[in-house]
Specification:
Layout lengths: L6 E4 L7 E3 L20 E3 L29
Antiparallel strand pairs: 1-2, 1-3
Length: 72
């Protein structure tokens, strides 16, 4: 499946075409699109990005505060 914004590059060193997806596709053969030169294209490498997850204090790590029990 191809998603909007994905970049694909031709692996042929003489061609080096680049393709940016502007509409999603659910075609079966869309796993490896072909360039105009006939060569199979590959997804361009996208560097992973770190993002911060902000949780409310009571949601942190899935724990909830324990109620203090009255000791006799």
């Amino acid at each position: 499946m191809m998603h909007i914004g994905q970049k694909w590059r031709c692996v042929n060193p003489r061609c080096c075409a680049e393709l940016v997806i502007i509409e999603s596709s659910q075609l079966v053969d869309a796993d490896q699109p072909r360039c105009g030169c006939g060569t199979v294209m590959k997804k361009a490498y996208e560097r992973p990005t770190a993002r911060r997850v902000v949780l409310a204090p009571d949601e942190a790590h899935g724990f909830v505060p324990r109620k203090e029990s009255a000791k006799a």
